[in-house]
Amino acid sequence: MPWGEFKDTAAERRLFQSRAMVMLVFVVILIGGLLVRMYQLQVIEHEVYTTLSDKNRVQVQSVPPPRGLVYDRNRILLAENRPVFSVTLVPERVDGMDQTLSQLGGILDVSEEDLERFERRLQEPRRPFQEIPLRYDLNEQEMARLAVHRHELPGVEVKAELVRYYPHSELTAHALGFVGRINRDELQRIDPVNYAGTNYIGKSGIERFYEDLLHGEVGYQHVETNARGRTLRVLERENPIPGEDLQLHLDLRLQKRAHELLDGRRGAIVAIEPATGGILALASVPGFDANKFVTGISVKDYRELSESRDKPLFNRALRGQYPPGSTMKPMLAIAALDSGATTRDYTIWDPGYFRLNDSGRRYRDWKRGGHGWVDLMDAMAESCDVYFYEIAVKMGVDTMYSYLSRFGFGEDAALDVSGALSGLLPSREWKRAMRSEPWYPGDSVNLGIGQGFMLATPLQLATATSLIANRGTWAEPRLLKEIEGDTPVSDYLPDGTHEPLKLKNPGDWEYVVGTMAEVMHGRRGTARRAGDDAPYRMAGKTGTAQVFSLAEDEEYDAEEIRERLRDHALFIGFAPVDNPKIAVAVIVENGGGGSSTAAPVARDLFDAWLLEFPASEDGALVGSVDAGGEE
Amino acid sequence: MALNDFVDSTAANPLGRPRGIWSALHLDPILLFLLLILVSGGLFVLYSGADRNIDVVKAQGIRLGVAFVVMLVFAQLDPSVFRRWAPWLYGAGIAALLAVLLVGVGAKGAQRWLAIPGLPRFQPSELMKLVVPMMAAWYLSRHFLPPRFRHVMVGLAIVLVPMMMIIQQPDLGTSLLVGMAGIFVVFFAGISWKLISAFVALVSVSAPMMWFFVMRDYQKQRVLTLLDPQSDPLGAGWNIIQSKTAIGSGGLEGKGWLQGTQSHLEFLPESHTDFIVAVLAEEFGFVGMLALMTVYFLIILRCLYIAVTAQDSFSRLLAGALTMTFFIYIFVNVGMVSGLLPVVGVPLPLISYGGTSGVTLMAAFGVLMSIHTHRRMISA
Known about the structure:
The structure holds two protein chains of two kinds.
Chain A: H1 9-44, H2 46-57, E1 58-63, E2 70-71, E3 77-89, H3 97-107, H4 112-123, E4 132-135, H5 140-149, E5 156-165, H6 169-176, E6 179-181, H7 184-189, E7 200-202, H8 205-209, H9 211-215, E8 219-225, E9 231-238, E10 246-248, H10 252-262, E11 267-273, E12 278-285, H11 291-294, H12 299-307, H13 316-319, H14 329-339, E13 348-350, E14 353-355, E15 362-364, E16 372-374, H15 376-381, H16 385-406, H17 428-435, H18 441-447, H19 458-469, E17 480-483, H20 507-521, H21 528-531, E18 539-545, H22 558-564, E19 568-575, E20 582-588, H23 594-612, H24 620-627
Helix pairs in contact in A: 10-23, 14-16, 14-20, 16-18
Chain B: H1 3-7, H2 20-24, H3 29-49, H4 54-76, H5 79-103, E1 105-107, E2 110-113, H6 124-141, H7 149-167, H8 172-189, H9 193-214, H10 217-227, H11 236-250, H12 261-264, H13 276-308, H14 313-337, H15 357-373
């Protein structure tokens, strides 16, 4: 059939025209429908979508404040902030976590521990699109390698972060404390707003105590981000307020010397400036590298530290509770004089032992044959035990407790030293409560030479020593010297609550100080060797604390045990006698006698403080450096 | 300007004599002018949608240039050529679709391309958008119109066979457009309203069957997401939420060219391909959308006029179907981006970047121009 031959073309044309009209109407209606839809979205619901669009692109980010710096008294940096580059992953943006991790492992040095920690964090609840760190502290080569491969690794980012750094790591670890990652418990405690961008928090020491000051105030920025969350530009910014810089009483040089003096031994030294209570040195040896703790210590390193028999993590200066031994004698002498249990002239015969009654048990003097006739001066100089047995019994526990507690024993008297323990000052009540036994006169005998139940920390010993140096005036020990800026220190240091120890005869202070000077300079003073040839006069008291028992659950090592059962060597003292600049407490664990081991350490510190760096006030160091020119 | 003046500009030449350069080139100046407005405006939007990537604009420019050449070539061919070739092209098309299903290459789980050595990779389904209406028009115009029931059935079969084959690839968008192109031929041929009602009823009934037996899971997901985009705000719902946000935040006058935050901050997916209309809506607002729709409407109006003034049934049916296919592109794309229709891969005609659809569309306009410029002097 040829095209169109028998067809009614006119009718077909009319049919088509009518159909085309229908289609035109159809098109008009549908295009109208689309335009109505557009009108609905763009005009009627415009506000809604504008809000959505703004919310889409603008995000509020918190800007963490830089942590305040910490200086020593000569403005030497003890704690600073250092930029550290780390690799982080945003799980939402990573395609193929396993593959990405293995690829990163080929580019960087990623340890098993890094991976474990990462996996752990991955399981923990977190904000969406929050990055999880994989490796900290990248070196330059790793950064370069990562830059090359970065485009292949979506969701992998390099973050720069200011991280705490302790340039004198081991020296300051116990005194300053350190910061570490905020943990779950701390998360409950901190202000979520102010810590919104902060990853680190003070874990111990100054870092913990002055956390509020050091942290600062969080800042904010409104940033425009793209759909993948990458920041494109900052629209608005409110800068964070940096944490306050702190200056401590600590003198790094003295701190260093203290560490050197104890090197190779276990022990602690606390040095206090009596006039201010400022802690000049707070050494606990062995120490550890606090920097390792900042970004998270490895399991292996931590195990090594925590399982070491030398307990480097243990802060002996604040938490080591030792029987103070004969270093209690100056305080007991004050107590005995003031309470009338003895007088300056009171003399006893020391046969080498003491008995409460004629048939009683013998309490030995450290000197087998006894000291013969001794008065208080002799008893101090020679550290005669029998004299103190007798006055202790005369005073009784209540008097001794009352005086010793006013020296700060049995409490943590320090103002801003976190984690200090309070030792143990026994009393009648304490014994009844803890041991369900009455206080026996024999207990008083033991307390008379600082043995028995009594325990004290090196910090407490130094505090009590500085009270004697001050002749009864309290200056609670403290680390903070100055807050850089307008804030007065007194706003942050807790108030000292200790009444001065006033004696009925204030001259007794001088007398007891004199007996302590006799220890150092007297012909028969126990520390006369340490006090030899000094251009200044010093006061001191040696002590030797018996180590009664030691939990030795480790394998038997005769050599080791013999060493660890040796007496602790102690010494307290201050110098110069008339205008005390420094008061110290020294303990060398298992060091043997106080006179032979601990006293020379103290003498060295006195020399260092008084002779070697005498002008220890602000600016003196800077001046001396400036002066050290070619001329 | 009255609508009549506008559509009658060439019809005012009753003898249809070759007149001036336009007739010599077999081009329709009005349609050409409208297409050039659309395409040049589209390149501006594309520059923004592609985030100022001038290479994308250049590539699109080249592609459009090729498409214009294709249009020019098609316009030179007499409509009778299309009619004579229709069965052969249809047969070849079906064979190619079969080949695609058997040995085709593809990406993202779909098999759409045929790689014949020595030829550029091509997508046979794209050609079917032209070939299927040609074949349907060829078949139906052989008989008296309106068609008998038997002929309608055969006509529908001509449409359904390639449609089902394309669905298998799977490519719902193209299948839909091919199907629509064929159905429009049947409609223009004069299928009775009774039958249309019956078909509508049939489709309504078979829709649930499609749901269970034909549609893939991801296609179902798109429909579900359309109904409730918030159910999957980061997955399938993301596109719809973000494109609605882009459109809505554009407001009456828009944020200005290159100022759209939704697209430039990468919230809007496929901002230079299927979702480019959202870029336009965000940056030029309701005013811009109104302008775009006006240009599109004028093109459709001109093409319908060409169809109505065509001289034989085959030309009329083909011209009408191609016009409506063009419209369906617009409606489906804008409807999808504005959240009225499920997300199917249909580009915005002559503005979206890439694909062979631009070439196909311009070829269709070439056919329309051919129909218009090859009218015999003897007019019915």
